[in-house]
Amino acid sequence: MVLKLYVDLLSQPARALALFVKKANIPHELKIVSIMKGEHKTQEYIDNVHPFGKIPAIDDNGFKMIESIAIIRYLARKYNVDDHWYPKDIEKQARVDEFLEWQHMSERIPLSLFFLNTYLKPMLTGKKLDDNRLQKYKSQMEDSLNDIENVWLKDSQYLVGNEISVADLVGISEIEQPRISNYDVTAGRPRIAAWMKRVQNDLQPHYDDVFKILNKLASKNASKL
């Protein structure tokens, strides 16, 4: 049986996982689960795939896992992928883990809150966020972006050293999300701009495929300005 990935490519962690298996040449089958249609909340999905009704999840020949970072680590170890993705060297691996631990609270949460409150909630409810709360979420997101610009990318080509790793897949999957809300994360951040181009080029031809839905939404919303 081939590895099954349950994803919706609107989900940042699902995109990171999809990019990883594609670029690392891990044989797999993508099983699209639509968040907008509520397919992740069906009883069948909860009973058989993800007990908490979330995305992503995997079924690796009967071995089922949830939580994207844990899944990426498991796949890197099992499928003997190129070492740069998740290095076996204990110090290099620790640096990758260091970013992965940091990003969950310090990148994912502020960027997700900005996206949810500037795009998703207004779309679903028809109500716009008041200016004070909007500025709060924007400020929190920009603090995170500035940390990536001035700390993580200060002395290296990638988030962890000078080779691409799973840290970059996770980082860029999150950092692309604000484009849907017409926010340019690269404005005034030349290191992020250069890093994004570098990672995008490294991950082709899969990058454009994985980000197809996001690009479509970003273009659609940009046309409304």
From TrEMBL:
Subunit structure and binding partners: Homodimer.
Residues covered by the GST N-terminal domain: 1-83
PROSITE patterns assigned to the protein according to its UniProt record, in alphabetical order: GST_CTER, GST_NTER
Record PANTHER family: GH16740P-RELATED (PTHR43917:SF8), PTHR43917
GST C-terminal domain sequence ranges: 89-225
Broad class of the protein's primary localization: cytoplasm
Positions of transmembrane segments: none
Catalytic activity: RX + glutathione = an S-substituted glutathione + a halide anion + H(+)
Main EC class the enzyme belongs to: transferase
Protein name per the record: glutathione transferase
GO BP, sorted A to Z: glutathione metabolic process
Lineage: Eukaryota, Metazoa, Ecdysozoa, Arthropoda, Hexapoda
Subcellular location: Cytoplasm
Family stated for the protein in its record: Belongs to the GST superfamily. Theta family.
